[in-house]
Amino acid sequence: MTVAIEMGHTTAGAPATLDLEELLATRLLVQGNSGSGKSHLLRRLLEQSAPWVQQTIIDPEGDFVSLGDRYGHLVIDAEEHTERGLQSAGERARIHRVSTVLNLEGLDAENQMRRAAAFLGGLFEVARDHWYPMLVVVDEAQLFAPAVAGEVSDEARKLSLGAMTNLMCRGRKRGLAGIIATQRLAKLAKNVAAEASNFLMGRTFLDIDMARAADLLGMERRQAEAFRDLERGQFMALGPALSRRPLGLRIGPTDTSPRNGTPRLMPLPESALEDARAIILAAPPPETVRPQRRSSPDLLDQLMAAKSAALEIRPEPAEPQISAEDLAERRERVDRVLRAILAQPDAGFRVIGVLYQEFVVRCRIEGLASVVPDLPEFRRMLTRARAGLGSDMAAGDDAWQDVSVRASLLPDDMQGVFMMIARAAKEGWPCPSDAAIARAYGSHSLRRARRLLTYIEEQGLIVCQLDGTGRRTVTLVELAWATAPGDPNAGEVEQGSLAL
Ligand SMILES: Nc1ncnc2c1ncn2[C@@H]1O[C@H](COP(=O)(O)OP(=O)(O)OP(=O)(O)O)[C@@H](O)[C@H]1O
Ligand SMILES: [Mg+2]
């Protein structure tokens, strides 16, 4: 069963849908300048999904309290509760499966962070029996996961960033689907943004945000210029829950009545919880382990904090720790993703930007977001892979090191061809045909393949020779490895050298 909610229409006029189950597994990041329509988009998403799945909104401006009247969300005014009270409220909201709006309006930045962290902590730490799926929407996420330290105390920042990191990096297993919106990607902590696999990018003016958006979407930065021209309510969608290719869409109106009579993602309790307010917000149980924190630091606290900050160098908060073993295992999986992409029949003919986009999305689906290579590294991997080399071979072998140094003298897009020929020469395989060379170059043109070979020869890297029967041998200069004679006109299937 899939449950697709309708977000609006594509630029072509078709319904633009969001797959809720996929969203639960893969999270969402929304970016756009002020007024681009992010909050409207979140509201649409919440309204459309309200009948299907429990939800909570971390709402710094009190924008979403109106959901309470229409859809029955319990509105929690954070101002009126302690951190500990909010932590309990978070746990109970999950236990009783009540949708909530955490209204943080009227609090200063320090307390917005502390109280949001406490509530999120409650959602996160609830016992395993209550790990039902739940959307956790955070509007203005840069307030809770800022890229750099601001005015607030270090402790508040650590708590809040930790809670956001938990939500985005480790929430999935617990059924929490993070949905975060921000005006400025550059202001949002990178590790938090990196864990989303789905993106909705709205109007964006600043180059630095466009560059970050392009990196996340796996687009050339030049392409991201288009974000400047988006209108209010228009977004570019990408990701497993939205679209496999970048898709323009316009968000539909809000305040539609929830659909009913259709299958449910996960049934919510039959009858509404009697007196949800009294149960969720009952006084917290007597203090056992966690000491009660002061709700706002006084001057003395701040001085103490500043002093201890000066005395110790603290590690960066909340970056998830990955062991070397884990990292190697993830790299191996990244390699596998790349091989799967290259195994597609048309892979050789697609431009690098498109391949990279697909690569990034697949890595994210595999939970590899934190180790996705950037575009330059991807180019290098592609070069090695197109030459039929695993990363192990490139690493261990001195002669191969030599080959890659030589390859680096060539323009990026020719390196794969050179490596492929070098491999054939090393193994004594027949010289690749023009068709095989064209394919490795991402082209269908045999003439271009021959020109390419001539060019590489002119750079002094190879020598090409034809024998009496028209078969071609290529020898690597200095290394003196030579291919076996091969027919330039052979179809690629006969070529042993293309081991993709
Ligand atoms: N798709 C849409 N259709 C109709 N009206 C929209 C749409 N998107 C946004 N609007 C309207 O445009 C205005 C700005 O939208 P919204 O508040 O969602 O922007 P925002 O990106 O959240 O801005 P900020 O970052 O300042 O909070 C609102 O009045 C909203 O109702
Ligand atoms: Mg907004």
TrEMBL record:
Coiled-coil segments on the chain, per record: none
Protein name: AAA+ ATPase domain-containing protein
Source superkingdom: Bacteria
Xref: InterPro entries: AAA+_ATPase, ATPase_Atu1862_pred, HerA-like, HerA_central, P-loop_NTPase
Matches recorded under SMART domains: AAA (SM00382)
Pfam families named in the record: DUF87
Region called Disordered, residue ranges: 246-265
Protein's organism: Mesorhizobium qingshengii
Domain AAA+ ATPase positions: 24-342
